[in-house]
Amino acid sequence: MGRVDALTALAEPTRRRIADELRLRECSVSDLVAALRMSQPAISKHLRVLREAGVVSARVSAQQRIYRLEPGPFRELDAWLAPYRQMWTRHLAALERHLDSQEHS
Questions:
Q1: Whole-angstrom Cα distance, residue 103 to residue 105?
Q2: Is residue 56 part of a domain?
Q3: Residue 1 falls within a domain, yes or no?
Q4: Domain limits at 27?
Q5: What angle do CA 98, 102, 105 make, to 5 degrees?
Q6: What's the burial of 23, exposed, middle or buried (CB within 10 Å: 0-12/13-18/19+)?
Q7: In sequence order, what are the residues at sequence separation of 6 or more whose Cβ sits closer than 8 angstroms to the Cβ of residue 23?
Q8: Position 14 pLDDT exceeds 50
């Protein structure tokens, strides 16, 4: 498999759950196994994809790897989503103005 980008990596629900856990705190594989109630091989497989996409990084502490989220890919996703957020904000503001005008009629 070639390099996966952050959006593709996070499209998978289990990987989003892993990211949700790591958003709260740095975790070892065993922490994630316990939190997500999944097997160690399954968690490790998903972590490998997230690591290859740059979404997570690991540091060694004693005999285990401790995983954490990397902010760069999330900044890129946020930048990509910004025009869509602006579009929906405009649409919702127009809807609010329309509903307000109906209320005052």
A1: 6
A2: yes
A3: no
A4: 6-103
A5: 140
A6: exposed
A7: 69
A8: yes
- For residue 34, pLDDT over 50 is answered with yes
In this structure, what token pair is assigned to residue 85? 């957020």
28: region left, alpha or beta (phi > 0 left; psi from -120 to 50 alpha): beta
The neighbouring-strand residues paired with 68 are 57
Closest CA to 62 of 25, 30, 32, 23: 30
Tokens representing 28 are 């070892």
CA-closest candidate to residue 47, choices 30, 71, 63:
30
Domain of 43, CATH number, reads: 1.10.10.10
pLDDT band with cut points at 50, 70 and 90 for residue 1:
very low
> What is the number of domains present in the chain?
1
pTM for the predicted model, two decimal places: 0.80
pLDDT digits (tens, 9 = 90+) for 51-68: 999 999 999 988 999 999
Establish if 26 belongs to a structural domain.
yes
